[in-house]
Amino acid sequence: MLLVTGATGHVGRALVDELNRRGAAFRALVRTPRPDLPAEQQLGDLDGPLDLRGVDKLFLLVPGTGLTHTTNVVTAARTAGVRRIVYLSSYAVLGDPVPAMGRWHHEREQLILGSGIPATFLRATGFMTNTTDWLPTIRAGGYVLDPIGPGRAAPVDPADIAAVAAAVLLEDGHEPWYTITGPETLTLAEQVAILGASIGRTLEVRPIETPEDAVRFRYPDGAPPELAAAIVEGLQLMRADTVGLRTDVVRRVTGREPRTYAEWCSAHSDVLGKGF
Questions:
Q1: Phi-psi region for residue 232, left (φ > 0), alpha (ψ -120 to 50) or beta?
Q2: CA-CA-CA-CA torsion sign (30, 33, 39, 44)
Q3: Among 73, 199, 231, 258, whose Cα sits 20 to 30 Å from the Cα of 65?
């Protein structure tokens, strides 16, 4: 049996849909029953001991920071005889030096590797669904705050990550690491222009002077110091990267091209337009 954790998040829910499309047998781990989730459900919580009896493959998505959740899952997986773990990691682990955000994922990868259970790590770039983080300022004044200026990145559709995850979970012969990106590198200003065209609005881009200002805006009541430092570091690195990382993993693994940001905005334009 295949078990999916994080099934109510952007990637996890997309994976549920992809597995259903492929006719796979699977369960979703949930804290409480979710009538809106089209999957057989198993009640459980990553915060404590888990019963993974009968599970042979596991998709692991761990929220927040720290190793507690991963430790709990790996312990239960070894006891149950799980044969493969597919972990949603981050491309930040590829940094040199590895930034704080990447170190958290790297430590989880190492913990999984140390278990002896065969694993594949999906190192994804930022999600296109992070566009919804701009909703408050667009609603308030039709603008988006830009803390990264000339920095470029290749955001990826969570559905494309899910398609890669499904292939790795259901097929043999896959690599132990995949770095998953979208098909094009964009500045934040370019993304905002694409979004505005999709929803029929002219959106302003307002530069943020320092990464610390971005953290204060996002967490007006203050962020935990460790998280705040990691966000500042990450934004500094994003601003400095004026090329951006791009791979062909989605095409190689799934046989189709990844969705562009314009295509993602167009597909969600009705929802985005109402939300903004």
A1: alpha
A2: positive
A3: 258
- CA dist 270 to 184, 193, 274, Å? 23, 17, 6
Q: How far apart are CA 85 and CA 56, in angstroms?
A: 9
Size of the chain, expressed as the number of residues it contains: 276
Sign of the torsion formed by the C-alpha atoms of 231, 233, 238 and 239: positive
Reported pTM: 0.95
Amino acid (1-letter code) at residue 113: L
**Contact partners, residue 80, CB within 8 Å, separation at least 6:** 51, 52, 53, 54, 55
Quick: pLDDT tens for 229-276. Answer: 888 999 999 999 999 999 999 999 999 999 999 999 999 988 777 766
Instruction: For residue 82, give both structure tokens.
Output: 């799980």
